[in-house]
Write a structure and sequence with these properties.
By secondary structure, the chain is mainly alpha-helical. The protein contains five helices and no strands. Helix 2 packs antiparallel against helix 3.
């Protein structure tokens, strides 16, 4: 499911927080990122210990992704705190629409 929904399910979690729980956009983004940590750790354990033919985790490559992800999250969070709430919501909507179109168009 993490591959289908994104590790944290942010494409669903963020809009639902904003629309149903009336959470401010910036806080919904932050909550979604916080949820990724335990979900990711659980997924790594499953892939490492239950992989067919051995572990399915390449920790060297994953370390590169972690470094890039931490840097990107830091920069993105700093920038997001300076963007008006309405623009953040529109940005999330544009990204979701783009991903949806890609999924419809790509085989």
């Amino acid at each position: 499911m993490s591959g289908l929904l994104g590790v944290g399910g942010g494409f669903l979690m963020v809009p639902l927080q904003v629309m149903l729980a009336k959470t401010p956009q910036l806080k919904a983004n932050a909550n979604s990122l916080a949820a990724i940590v335990p979900i990711s750790i659980a997924g790594v354990f499953v892939y490492y210990f239950a992989g067919r033919g051995g572990p399915q985790v390449d920790f060297r490559f994953a370390l590169l992704l972690v470094v890039g992800g931490v840097f990107g999250a830091y920069v993105g969070a700093r920038l997001a705190s300076h963007v008006p709430e309405a623009w953040l919501g529109r940005g999330v909507a544009v990204v979701l629409a783009g991903v949806g179109l890609k999924e419809i168009i790509s085989p």
